[in-house]
C-alpha cells in the first residue's frame, strides 16, 4: 500500500498524459467513416415514383457484306486456326427494325461492339447501346452488357442502364436468331427487351410534396413553388 502511495503522483501524471493523447489523437476509424460514405436519398426529393415494367420487341440486323456493312472488324482473331475466332472484335452500328425485313420501320440503332471471348464455344461479349430514334423515345438509350452464346436458342443478357426516358433502367434482353446467312455472315436477330424504370413525378406531384414539407421550410418552399408555377405558365 505504501509503495502505491509513493508512486501515486507519477500515476496521476501518466493518467493525465494518456487522457490528453486520447482526446487529441484523431480516430482512424472515425476519419475513415466520414471520408467516404453513401447516404440514402428520399426518392420524392428528386421526383422518383414507383417502378414500371415494360417490353419492347425489335429486330437487330448485323450486316457484314456489301458496300455499306453495319458491322466492321477492328481487331482480327488471335489465330487463323481458332475455331471460335477468339480475340476478334467487330464494331457495330446495326439498324433496329419493327419487323424482320430490313426495309421495315426503323426504331433505332445498336451501337457498340461484340468480341469473341471464348476458346471453347462461340461466346460473344456484347457491349452496345440501343439508341432509339422513334417517337417519344427519340434520343434515349438502353445499355446492354453480357455474354451471347450464339448457338443457344435463346440468349439472355442484362440491361445495365439507360439515358433519357430510360434513366435508372434495369432489366434483361432475350436474343433469338431469326435468320443467318452462312456465306456472308449477315444475321437478323429478334430481341425482346424487358426493362424497369422509375417513373418521374409530374410537376403537380412535386408541388404537392413541397407543400407538405416541414414548417421550418415553409418560407423557402412557398418561394420555390411560385417559381415552378411561373416557369410552368411561361412554358
Automatic annotation (TrEMBL):
Cellular compartment(s): Secreted, Extracellular space, Apoplast
Swiss-Prot/TrEMBL GO biological process terms: phenylpropanoid biosynthetic process
Domain of life of the organism encoding this protein: Eukaryota
UniProt xrefs under InterPro entries: Allene_oxi_cyc_Dirigent, Dirigent
Signal peptide location: 1-29
Keyword entries, A-Z: Apoplast, Secreted, Signal
Any one cellular-component term (Gene Ontology): apoplast
Primary location: secreted
Self-association state and partner proteins as the record states: Homodimer.
Family assignment from sequence similarity: Belongs to the plant dirigent protein family.
Function: Dirigent proteins impart stereoselectivity on the phenoxy radical-coupling reaction, yielding optically active lignans from two molecules of coniferyl alcohol in the biosynthesis of lignans, flavonolignans, and alkaloids and thus plays a central role in plant secondary metabolism.
UniProt protein name: Dirigent protein
Origin organism lineage: Eukaryota, Viridiplantae, Streptophyta, Embryophyta, Tracheophyta
Amino acid at each position: 500500500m505504501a509503495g502505491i502511495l509513493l508512486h501515486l503522483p507519477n500515476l496521476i501524471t501518466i493518467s493525465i498524459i494518456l487522457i490528453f493523447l486520447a482526446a487529441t489523437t484523431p480516430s482512424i476509424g472515425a476519419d475513415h467513416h466520414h471520408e467516404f460514405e453513401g447516404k440514402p436519398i428520399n426518392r420524392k426529393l428528386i421526383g422518383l415514383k414507383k417502378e414500371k415494367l415494360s417490353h419492347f420487341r425489335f429486330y437487330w440486323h448485323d450486316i457484314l457484306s456489301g458496300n455499306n456493312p453495319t458491322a466492321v472488324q477492328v481487331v482480327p482473331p488471335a489465330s487463323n486456326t481458332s475455331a471460335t475466332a477468339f480475340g476478334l472484335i467487330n464494331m457495330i452500328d446495326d439498324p433496329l427494325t419493327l419487323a424482320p425485313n430490313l426495309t421495315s420501320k426503323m426504331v433505332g440503332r445498336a451501337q457498340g461492339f461484340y468480341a469473341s471471348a471464348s476458346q471453347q464455344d462461340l461466346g460473344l461479349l456484347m457491349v452496345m447501346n440501343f439508341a432509339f430514334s422513334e417517337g417519344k423515345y427519340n434520343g434515349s438509350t438502353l445499355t446492354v452488357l453480357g455474354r451471347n452464346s450464339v448457338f443457344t436458342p435463346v440468349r439472355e443478357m442484362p440491361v445495365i442502364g439507360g439515358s433519357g426516358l430510360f434513366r435508372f433502367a434495369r432489366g434483361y434482353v432475350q436474343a433469338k436468331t431469326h435468320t443467318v446467312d452462312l456465306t456472308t455472315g449477315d444475321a437478323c436477330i429478334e430481341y425482346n427487351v424487358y426493362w424497369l424504370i422509375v417513373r418521374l413525378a409530374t410537376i403537380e406531384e412535386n408541388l404537392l410534396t413541397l407543400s407538405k414539407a416541414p414548417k421550418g421550410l415553409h418560407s423557402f418552399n412557398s418561394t420555390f413553388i411560385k417559381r415552378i408555377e411561373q416557369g410552368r405558365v411561361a412554358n
